[in-house]
Amino acid sequence: MWTALWINAAGLGTVRPHGLALPARGREPLPTDEQIGARIRRARLEAGFSSEAAFARALGFSQPTVSRLESGNRRIGAGELVAIAELLNRPPQHFLEDDATLVFFRDSGESLSAENDAAFRWLEDFARRVEALREFTPKLAVPVSEEIELASPSTWEEAQNAAGQARSRLGLGSGPAPDMFTLVEAAGCLVVVQPFVDAHFDAMYVPRPLGIALVNGATAKTAARQRFTLAHELFHHLFDKGRVVVDLDLYHFKQRRDQLANIFAAHFLAPRQGISAELERRFKTDRPESAEHAYWLAYAYGLSFEAMCYHLKNLELASAQATVKWREAPTKYLAARLGILGETQYLKVTNRWPTEFVQRLQYALHSRVITREQLFSHLREDQSAAKELVAASG
């Protein structure tokens, strides 16, 4: 069962099923009819009601009534607002308070620590910033994401096949996938990397209203780990759009969906056909025969050495005994034997903002849609990035 949670800066709000919780007197003025109507329209679209007529039928209203309510040409009654809130899984306060947050869905069976919950609220706030920029900059041309429609896998074999199909739809062959940030965003999922030192999760994915993944830079510290994390989140973006997913630890997973996501990630990043071709090209063999072979594959495909060893075992290209022995070899020794200068898979990746977010900020500043002060507010966690944007805009 999925439970809708309304979250604001003060914590969890409460929903009164038979009445409205109005903002406290003297705190802030009540919104106008136009503001309430705009919030209803946005919530309707986020909930999947693209048609006013379908929304009206679900409510038992007429289509002209819905149109007048959303345009602010008709004042909404308390009973009507409660009915709309219940249909859209919002508390009535969402339509009445100026700082009403976006509403996401969370698995009611998974409790989050205070630190993880704080990261969740940060992601809500960031999603609002992106949404606001989209409203400010409607004329900006951004790349259209690839619509990938695939059947949701329920077995290991289906997850492996889905990885191959996703690679094909994204225009990849069987070789190493290029920059995973670009690939995941090409599929319509924005990616942001921020460090949450006290939190204990690798990534969060939320499907509404944007489709956005938050990677914890404090746990997924290396480039190799972040690549795997992004491939894992791509699975959730493609197949779990109806729920929020919080991946506490990709390497110690319990839930079946996360197991399937890991199978998908491994085959997406390093397909068997590509591995065999790379071994033949580099070592004139179609199976790994040593730790050096496994390490080269990890280097070539951007996986950690440990992850590649597990992958080779699961592909039945190497025995469990062999991969255990290989993992004991010092990686610096293996890199030296192969002539690899440095271990690039262990390079750290710092804060990262979605490409669209940066593009819209640049456009908004250049077009004077926002001021420099507002730009610094949008990038308040990364003032150095804000200064670079200002300098680049002249």
Name the features.
single chain; 394 residues; alpha+beta; 434 Repressor (Amino-terminal Domain); Arc Repressor Mutant, subunit A; four-stranded mixed sheet; two-stranded antiparallel ribbon; 17 helices; 49% helix; disordered N terminus
3D structure, described in words:
This protein has helices at about 35-45, 50-60, 65-70, 80-85, 115-135, 155-170, 180-185, 225-240, 255-270, 270-285, 290-300, 305-315, 320-325, 330-340, 355-365, 370-380, 385-390; strands at about 1-5, 5-10, 10, 105, 190-195, 205, 210-215, 245. The protein is α+β, with helices and mostly antiparallel strands and about 400 residues long. The protein folds into 4 domains: about 1-100, lambda repressor-like DNA-binding domains (434 Repressor (Amino-terminal Domain), Orthogonal Bundle), CATH 1.10.260; about 100-270, Arc Repressor Mutant, subunit A, CATH 1.10.10.2910; about 270-345, no CATH class; about 355-390, no CATH class. A hairpin with a 5-residue loop joins β6 (about 205) and β7. The longest helix has 23 residues, at about 115-135. The N and C termini lie far apart (about 50 Å). Residues about 1-30 and about 100-110 have low confidence and may be disordered.
What is the share of helical residues? 40-55%
Q: How would you spell out the order of helices and strands? A: EEEHHHHEHHHEEEHEHHHHHHHHH
What's the CATH architecture of the largest domain? Orthogonal Bundle
Characterize the overall form.
Answer: elongated
Spatial strand order of the main sheet: 5-7-6-8
Report the C-alpha radius of gyration, rounded.
Answer: 24 Å
Query: What is the number of E strands?
Result: 8
CATH topology of the largest domain, what is it called? Arc Repressor Mutant, subunit A
By secondary-structure content and strand pairing, the structural class works out as alpha+beta
Number of domains: 4
Overall pLDDT metric: 82
Any low-confidence stretches, pLDDT <50, length ≥5? 1-28, 99-109
**Largest beta sheet, briefly?**
4 strands, mixed
N/C terminus separation: 52 Å
Number of helices: 17
Identify the CATH class of the largest domain. Mainly Alpha
- Estimate what percentage of residues fall within beta strands: 5-15%
